[in-house]
Design brief:
Layout (H helix, E strand, L loop, with lengths): L19 H18 L15 H15 L11 H33 L7 H33 L6 H7 L1 H17 L5 H13 L2 E2 L4 E2 L4 E3 L5 E2 L4 E2 L4 E3 L3 E3 L7 H4 L8 E2 L4 E2 L4 E3 L4 E2 L4 E2 L4 E2 L8 E2 L19
């Protein structure tokens, strides 16, 4: 059967918007305005600016150029140009950070009806304190790079780790955001951590306390909750969750400042897809938690927790121990 012939005149006229839609728009606008103005729905209709998500992301990328010079810059750096590169980037970084911190503090004060908190002076002080902390942050990151090289035989060198390992990038952003949490900066640390999450699928809350030489191998699906504490030389594999136990409805605000996530002591290894929950749960030093293990109670130092080997069922010609 041949294709039905289409009247060539049917598609010649340009489509015109229906005038009926202009009758709908004013009513929809009224409903939206009512929802936002009445504060029934969340919005940011305020006389103070909220921090810019794009500028916060730019701060992360600029910090990357400062703390890993030569890796993420379009030009080659030499020992003679390094001082100029760092000085120029740190100056711009300071000014941008101070501006964004000021917006974050003003926004927070307005939202909570707080009295004037001297946001201009505070933001300058905070930006200065953050700048002074950068050498310490870089030293921690160097320990994280060493931990990656020691823990992953596939890691060829530091260049490869810095350029391409999602675990290092997530930890790098965490260390920036955590310092801002310590300096009591609102909202910006969470913007940073969510940016890292969308880039790596690794979710590290900036409130977590993570010591030196931290290594996340592969990484996708790792979740580290806000009140987690992680000691030195800890290694996590993909899919590990350090989370909270199920909370009753309405408990979010009541338990906001209480410990809800586990403590991982020094030299612990946690393999893929293990889940460790609860603020009272402590994983003792030098312990090993096997893949797919579910823990809601503490274990002593030097303990291995493993699942029993499941029984495999072979269907077909192959039997146990044989190769095809």
């Amino acid at each position: 059967m041949g294709k039905k012939e289409v009247d060539s005149g049917e598609c010649n006229s340009d489509l015109q918007p229906s005038r009926l839609v202009f009758d709908y728009i004013p009513g929809v606008v009224d409903q939206l305005v009512s929802g936002f103005i009445s504060k029934k729905w969340s919005s940011h209709i305020e006389p103070v600016p909220i921090p810019s998500k794009q500028e916060v992301v730019d701060l992360v990328l600029q910090a990357q150029r400062i703390l890993f010079p030569g890796y993420f810059t379009p030009m080659n750096l030499s020992p003679t140009s390094l001082e100029y590169h760092l000085g120029q980037n740190l100056t711009v970084f300071y000014e941008t950070l101070a501006h964004q911190v000021s917006s974050a503090i003003r926004h927070d004060c307005f939202r909570h009806n707080q009295t004037c908190s001297q946001c201009g002076e505070r933001s300058d002080h905070i930006a200065g304190e953050f700048i002074r902390a950068l050498p310490e942050i870089r030293e921690l990151l160097e320990s994280d790079i060493r931990a990656t090289l020691e823990g992953d035989p596939a890691a060829a060198n530091a260049d490869e780790v810095i350029f391409s390992y999602p675990g290092l990038f997530a930890v790098f952003v965490y260390r920036l955001a955590h310092k801002l949490i310590q300096l009591e900066v609102p909202i910006i640390p969470r913007i940073m951590s969510e940016y890292a999450y969308h880039k790596t699928a690794i979710d590290i809350h900036p409130g977590a306390a993570i010591d030196d030489s931290f290594f996340i191998d592969h990484g996708a699906g790792v979740v580290i909750g806000a009140t987690s504490t992680i000691g030195s030389r800890v290694r996590l594999y993909q899919g590990v969750t350090l989370g909270a136990l199920s909370l009753p409805k309405g408990a979010g605000k009541l338990l906001k400042n209480t410990r809800r996530h586990p403590t991982i002591q020094d030299d612990v290894i946690i393999y893929a897809n293990a889940t460790i929950l609860g603020g009272e749960t402590v994983i003792g030093a030098r312990s090993i938690v096997g893949g797919n293990v579910w823990l809601t109670e503490s274990i002593s130092p030097d303990t291995k927790v493993l699942l029993k080997q499941p029984e495999l069922v072979y269907i077909g010609k192959q039997t146990k121990g044989e190769q095809q």
